[in-house]
Design a protein that fits this description.
By secondary structure, the chain is α+β, with helices and mostly antiparallel strands. Among the domains are: 90 residues, 2-Layer Sandwich (Ybab, Chain: A), CATH 3.30.1310; 94 residues, no CATH class. The chain is built from 8 helices and 10 strands. The protein has a 7-stranded antiparallel beta sheet with strand order 2-8-7-6-5-4-3.
Length: 339
């Protein structure tokens, strides 16, 4: 096992965060197991709150992908600008309400930016290679793609040449295949020496042609000669699709960090956080309390609930850190023993 895994987990365990939220009407709805559906519900939640605060218009994107969350981020940013000016001129008795609204908008802005960043990373991962870098810097990318996904082993020793601005040839003395662009350079096809053909998506970005996958390789459409069938070019990494389509295709392949990010955004939603405690591994503790909480007649009960949550969380945290330390030590002993 790679020691970097333990390092990454250790970094994630450096801080414990406990939030207490007061909600007027509770729901037993859990976050959907589908990451696509969870993002859809989160986007709908954010959109509803922006509508309530009268900063949602104009609405262009109504889905849950990079463009949709980018729009939600931008609308929240506009709302922050409007409310910040309003706060400056508001009478004292209105400032608390406006400050609460600003806090929610800032959360929507931040979380939406996080989701957009996740999709940008997924988009970059889905990019196979750059047409303009072959032959050249991306030779290894196209070779690895053909080996890992198309099981073309002879490609390891192949010569790569660009015949013209729309054709790349990979060949040995006994085998060859061609990668060709269509006339408008929006699709690329791979034709193997055994007659198979595959369609890939081409996008011009920053003056260069990038080749993207649209689905996992076992779902590629095998096309007869001259068949015009194509594949959706962004569904693998994006989520700007209708909800029914989300149920029909594979889920987003994201990292555990991104799953945690989505779950945290889902759990907190657009509710007001009345108490928040951060505990650092070195013993530093920071607690933030909303001044509105002191006006709540049930504040003593809320303080107790928050304190109980801290006790429960720190116990679990301590056990988790202890278990990780033990596992890391055992793995280290095994590795040392092998040397």
């Amino acid at each position: 096992m790679d020691n970097s895994i333990f390092k990454k987990i250790g970094q994630d365990l450096m801080t414990l965060e406990i939030n207490t939220i007061i909600k007027s009407d509770m729901s037993t709805t859990k976050m959907p197991n589908s990451r696509r559906q969870a993002l859809y519900e989160l986007a709908r939640m954010y959109s509803s709150k922006l509508e309530e605060l009268k900063v949602r218009e104009p609405v262009v994107w109504k889905y849950a992908g990079m463009e949709s969350f980018g729009e939600l981020r931008d609308r929240a940013t506009e709302g922050i600008s409007i409310l910040s000016k309003k706060l400056h001129n508001a009478p004292p008795d209105k400032k608390k309400d406006i400050s609460d609204q600003l806090a929610i908008l800032e959360r929507i802005q931040y979380q939406s930016s996080q989701v957009v960043g996740m999709f940008k990373l997924l988009k970059e991962i889905s990019k196979f290679f750059c047409w303009d870098e072959i032959p050249g810097n991306h030779n290894a990318r196209i070779i690895n793609f053909l080996i890992e996904n198309l099981s073309i082993d002879w490609i390891k020793t192949a010569t790569i040449e660009k015949i013209d601005n729309k054709t790349i040839r990979l060949y040995t003395e006994e085998n060859q295949l061609f990668l060709r662009l269509n006339n408008d350079k929006t699709k690329a096809s791979i034709k193997t020496d055994d007659g198979r053909s595959y369609s890939l998506t081409v996008k011009k970005e920053n003056g260069k042609l990038n080749i993207y996958n649209g689905k996992k390789i076992d779902e590629f459409i095998v096309m007869p000669e001259n068949d015009n069938l194509t594949i959706h070019d962004t569904e693998l990494w994006n989520n700007d699709i209708d909800r029914q389509r989300m149920n029909e295709i594979e889920d987003l392949d994201i990292t555990p960090d991104h799953v945690i990010m989505i779950r945290k955004a889902w759990d907190i939603g657009t509710e007001k956080i009345v108490m928040q405690t951060f505990i650092q591994l070195d013993g530093d503790v920071t607690t933030r309390i909303s001044d509105r909480l002191f006006e709540n007649p049930y504040r003593e009960n809320i303080f107790k609930i928050h304190n109980d949550s801290i006790q429960m969380s720190t116990k679990f945290w301590s056990n988790l850190v202890g278990a990780l330390t033990t596992i890391a030590g055992d793995v280290s002993k095994i590795l040392v023993g092998k040397k």
